[in-house]
Specification:
The structure holds two protein chains of two kinds. Chain A has helices at 20-28, 61-69, 90-95, 113-124, 128-142, 157-169, 187-204, 215-221, 239-248, 253-264; strands spanning 2-14, 32-45, 50-54, 76-81, 97-101, 175-179, 207-211, 224-229, 232-238. Chain A is α/β, with parallel strands linked by helices. Chain A has a six-stranded mixed β-sheet with strand order 5-6-7-3-8-9, with helices on both faces. In chain A, helix 5 (128-142) packs antiparallel against helix 6 and helix 6 (157-169) runs parallel beside helix 7. Chain A starts with a strand and ends with a helix. The mean pLDDT of chain A is 90. Chain B is mostly helical. Chain B has one domain (2-257). The radius of gyration of chain B is 19 Å and the shape is globular. The model of chain B has no long low-confidence stretch (mean pLDDT 89). Classes of the chains: A alpha/beta, B mainly alpha. Chains A and B meet through helix 2, helix 3, strand 5 and helix 4 of A and helix 1, helix 5 and helix 13 of B.
Chain lengths: 267, 259
Amino acid sequence: MIQVESLRKTYLSRRRASGVGQALLSLVKPSRERIEALKDVSFSIERGEIVGYIGPNGAGKSTTIKVMCGILVPDSGVCLIKGRVPWKERAAHVAGIGVVFGQRSQLWWDVPVIDSFELLRDVYRVPGREYSASLEELVSALDLSPLLGQPARSLSLGQRMRCEMAASLLHSPDILFLDEPTIGLDAVSKLAVRAFIERANRERGVTVILTTHDMHDIEALVSRVILIGKGEILYDGGFEALVAGGRATGAGIEAVMAALYGEMGIA
Amino acid sequence: MRLLLRYLRLAAKGQLRYRSTFYLTAFAQIAMPLSLLAGISLLFARFGTLGGWSMGEALLCYGVTQVAFALAELSSRGFDNFPSILANGEFDRILVRPRGLMLQVLGSRLDLSRFGRLIVGGIVLAWAAKGSGVEWTPLKAATIALMTLCGAVVFSSLFVLGAAFAFLTTDGLELVNIFTDGGREMAQYPMSIYERWLRLFFTFVIPFACVNYLPLLFVLGRPGTGPAYALLPLAGLAFALPCLLAWRAGTRRYVSTGS
């Protein structure tokens, strides 16, 4: 379903000048820094899997997700999703995926949520009957009926995230990219979002790629994790096997992960 | 088309929600061109004619420019505001939707308060149509319509060009405003009052003269002009081409750098 091989991506980033003199100098001669966001990233994901894509901040998670979504073209390497190269057939590719960026809303801020949904129906050209069925299912699964008439700006973060999940599934994609979907949520909302991800995977057969810093998300949802650090894949396999050693010491999961990142030299 | 209507409905709903803001903005949109109009009429009250143009004639020029600019702002505000779309990550969201990028940028920022300017421009245009003393023929009326549409295309193209620059600088360049706002201010007066180099620039580089001054000469029946002048506004479409290419180059750059 998803095949990624030897992805490389290097950014040129402008180095921030420290003093006024330096800042003036950089106007004339910008000093640039090469940042290797992805060095050699390979993995493959089968239909129906839920995969946790984890690693410390700045490890290259978002860059990889952007490549898979067709937002970013890598310097070299292969990325095939359902037989398509995302950035070459952007429109055809994105019609079959759903994307949730936890930190950014895709809902229109000032209009009732249902209007955003109807816009998405037209954007994705979802036929009327399919849309009604899909909407009905999502509304009941996520308990959205009291929210549909409210503008997105008046929703709490947890309520909004439930609407975001629905918005990204209205067109029945078979792959769902979730970039930190539980960030900032309270316990109740986190559980609701997790339960829904699990259900979408089970009932709709959606393949889920999930990035998160909350290891409880991973424990609850994921059997397989891919761990990236400094642009390289450092681990690909079962989550329990990864943390078993750390758990034996009796430490909490956060401490276990921190120790693990430290050992790998990517903290 | 259906999607465009949907965008329009959403914009209307969203903007009408803040009623007072909407009314105030619309009021400003009406007041601004009106104050300009007052300035123009003062000018004519003092001097009688301007570069050989009577007030009715000059108001044709003014009306066409205002309507064209209002149409461009109404539709292409997304490109004018493009730096904010880039900065808040909205453009990434646009890239993961299976529709044309330009259509989505356009749809995300339809600005209905711009109807104010459109209405003022329309009224002035209707008034000037009488006041200029032109003997109207279907061809002349069609010329005015073409001027307005192609004028809107020129303004929109400038917005698109500005957006293309935003890919390079992220903040966008105020430089482009010189040509959009400056071009609007300039094109509402007959081009004959300007220096030669300025006229040449606004004929051959940014073809404001082709969508406004030159075809107006024909509409007003100035000697030495003919029906061929009615086709000049099409030069405005030619101007859109390099702007579209710049936009494409900008999006290509964006997906290869991600910033």
